[in-house]
Amino acid sequence: MRDIIKIIRPHQWVKNVFVFLPLFFGQRLLEAELLTNTIIVFIAFSFAASSIYCFNDVIDVEADRKHPVKSKRPVASGAVSCTMAYAMMFAMIALSMATLTLLNSIPTSTVGVILGYWLLNLAYCWRLKQYAIIDVCIIAFGFVLRILAGSTATGIVASHWLVMMTFLLTLFLSFAKRRDDVLRMMKTGEAPRQNTSRYNLTFINQAITITGSVTLVCYIMYTVSPNVIASFGTPYIYLTSGYVILGLLRYIQLAVVDEKSGDPTKVMLHDHFTQLIVATWIITFLVIIYV
User: Which residues of 159-179 are buried (b: 16+ CB within 10 A; e: fewer)?
Assistant: First the structure.
């Protein structure tokens, strides 16, 4: 049972909190019905993501066995068979669709977004992740789909600012993650991924700098936008920009100085400084727009 739980990677479900962003930025976080719908979508999206993890471990089994860390995954280590992994894959997507029936009325668009995410990531695992740049763009677009899932389930339209910032931030994190692969390739002489040879340290460092800078500029423009100020009824949103600057700098420090950018989820779950920055940003934002 432990290996079965391990293959669905519940610790990665933290990524799906992005479905709550339309509710959060739409200033309707305290509406019980909408919050319940978003929680249901969060669970459904988590099951769909777990389905992809199962499929990915089967597709990557040979490559994972050569990796010092990934070789401990249940399928790569032999603890879970490929047949069982496939069974878990279909069970997870079935659970995802079943969870959506808990909604008062199931929006067709929500089902479409989650199934679209599932199909896109099947293609990603099977072939698309072999192409440099395309791979990180698909990962970033997956987070945009999380935003859209939360939006369709609540009827709250996700602003173009929210979509752009989500894509840019997760693109930044994806490039930082690829940096870990490049460092491993430089140390061992063997590319951990088929597309890693199409990256090098100079390119990755510049990509991180560009995406981090554009993300920050986009966020600052968002906070001073007249439409955003009018929507929130306060001119003080710009005060949260400091946390974004600190968060980006901290992650660059972890990636470049500490060389610990291989798993953004683990960084979020274990780096106390990052947790403090995110928590303080959330609290400040809540105070500004809700109090």
Answer: bebbbbbbbbbbbbbbbbbbb
DSSP conformation class of 268: H
Cα–Cα dist 41/19, whole Å: 7
Find the mean pLDDT for residues 143-161.
94
Q: Distance (Å, rounded) from C-alpha 163 to C-alpha 110?
A: 16
Q: Is the dihedral of CA 68, 169, 59, 126 positive or negative?
A: negative
Structure confidence at residue 105 (pLDDT): 75
Cβ(158)–Cβ(151) under 8 Å? Answer: yes
* Buried-state track 215-254, b at ≥16 Cβ within 10 A, e below 16: bbebbeebbeeeebeeebeeeebbebbebbebbbebbbeb
Residue 238 scores a pLDDT above 90: yes
Q: Record the pTM.
A: 0.92
Give the separation between CA 9 and CA 74, rounded to whole angstroms: 11
Both tokens of residue 191?
């590319």
